[in-house]
Structures are given as C-alpha cells and as structure tokens.
Design a protein that fits this description.
It is a single chain. The chain has about 220 residues and is an alpha/beta fold. It has one domain: 3-Layer(aba) Sandwich (Rossmann fold), CATH 3.40.50. The chain is built from 9 helices and 5 strands, in the order ααβαααβααβαββα. It has a 5-stranded parallel β-sheet with strand order 2-1-3-4-5, sandwiched between helices. The radius of gyration is 18 Å and the shape is globular. The termini are close together. The relative contact order is 0.21. One of its GO terms (molecular function) is carbohydrate derivative binding. This is D-sedoheptulose 7-phosphate isomerase. Keywords: Isomerase.
Amino acid sequence: MKSSTMQYIEELVTRYPVLEKVKDDVVEALNMLINMYSAPYHGKILVCGNGGSAADSLHIVGELMKSFKIPRPLPENFRQNILKYSHGKELCKNLQMPLQAMSLVCEVGLNTALGNDVEAVYEFAQQVLGYGQKGDILFCISTSGNSENVVCAAEVALAKEINVIALTGATGGKLKNLATVCIAVPEIETFKVQELHLPVYHALCLAVENEIFKRGE
C-alpha cells in the first residue's frame, strides 16, 4: 500500500479519535477493496442498507464511480476508440474512470415486485444472487447489524464466495459473525452511529482512489 494511501486512514483516526478502536478493521477493509480493484477481474462492490444507510449506500457509489479527489483520466486506447464518434472530444474531456460500484436500494420495480409477490426481506439477497460474482465485495451498512434484508444479502454473498464488509454500530449485531470484516463503530444510538459511518466510508473511498489512480507513493 502506498504511504499516501495510508495517510487517509491516519487522518481519519486523528480527526475522529474514537475510531482508533476500529482502525485495524478499516485497514483490513481497505486492503480488500484495493485487492479487488487491482485484480485482473476488476470486481465491483454492491452496497445495501435501509433508511439513512440506504442514502449512505448511494453516497458511496457516487464517490467511487467518478473522481472523488484525484483525476482519473481515460486510458489511451479507449480515448482513441471514442474519438471516432461525434461526441468523442467532449466524452474524452468529461468522462472519468470509475471504480465499479452499485447500490441495491434503487431497483424500485424489482424490490416492489419482491415485496408484493414474495417478501421484501429478500430484496437485496435477490440482487446479490443476480449481480454478484466471485471476486466482488458486498458492502453492508446497518446501524444495528441486525437488518434482516441486509443479513440475508450477506448470507447469499458468502454462499457465492463474495467477501462481505459490514459497517455497523458497536455490537456488530448478526453481521459481526457473517462479515469477512466488520467495522463496528463505537456508538449505539442510530444517529451517532451514522455520524461515524460517513467519515469511515469517505476515508475508504479516498484511500482506494489514491491507491488505484495516484502516481508514485
């Protein structure tokens, strides 16, 4: 890992000293993300959660699928291919290389169909079954760690040999024993847990972007 990448984690625990308790787990999750995005497969993360955690899942995708802090220029072979088309120059100028990520909270047609025809608790699990591939990562966000639709998604992911990162409150809930790595921030009340979740996933997004796209150390 680049020294400049690790600086994002050091800054996280400096700004939020209470997160020193989960620093090792954050680093483990970061290494999982770096390994996935660096592998020949170039996997993706699937993100899920409910309520405020659903909003967080969308936030994470927004930080990964476009430049967060560091420029992400298109590779030259793709630039040459896209320049053949009428919008080529504009596309080359404005598009940014993604770190593949998708949220599972916005498939309204599928999720409401499951809720109507089966049970809503399986909405994320069905999508992990459909979209997930070995080499991907499922990123589960639950302040309690016990959200049943998120737990079901984690179980399907593990059955498909997909690693699971859980971001929870202090107890870790059911996700603690399911996740490949569980970042259980040291708060219990929902809003306080959520206040610590944001700097954790910001640091992860910044750090993985730095590792993949920054030149040098």
